[in-house]
Fold:
Amino acid sequence: MLCFAEDFHLTPNKTLLQQIRADWNNHEKDWTRPGFRALAFYRLGVWRMTIRNKFLRAPFSLLYRSLYRRARNLYGIELPYSASVGSDVVIEHQGGIVIHGNCRIGHGSIIRQGVTLGNRYMDRPFDAPELGNRVNVGAGAKILGAVKIGDHAVIAANAVVLQDVPAAHLAAGIPAKIRPLKSSVSMGETS
Structure:
């Protein structure tokens, strides 16, 4: 069952600094990790949109654009502010990570290097995946189109997911085949 908050952009009762501190804690309190930096830049980009006056927002928009380009070009992590990212999300490694601007990523999910969360068809550019809570996405996995990934699902390394994945299921292969998980694996103990 997918359970999304109405708006992942602003976690209820958390300020921008509290969200960034939580991301820092989830990335082993290492500010040099590219995944942490990309999430911090993302959170800044989302926060700046809460400033209604365009003139007051302008300097933050310039800063965000610069930081977004840094994350994309230097770290290889493309995470636009228009995506919806829950709390406690971890981006494990850098390089080749592309997240669609309409994508939703649930709380406590893990994204690894080489992952694409994008659209499948050129004539449907706004279709994007929705990941439930605590989804574990393996290196090189591709999740394409308006598919829903259930809570505690595991997407195996290099899997190509083109269909919905129920909660507590494993998707592996090209194209991905789906099967139920054992409870210990579904809780993120696969690493």
Q: What stands out?
A: The chain has one domain: 16-186.
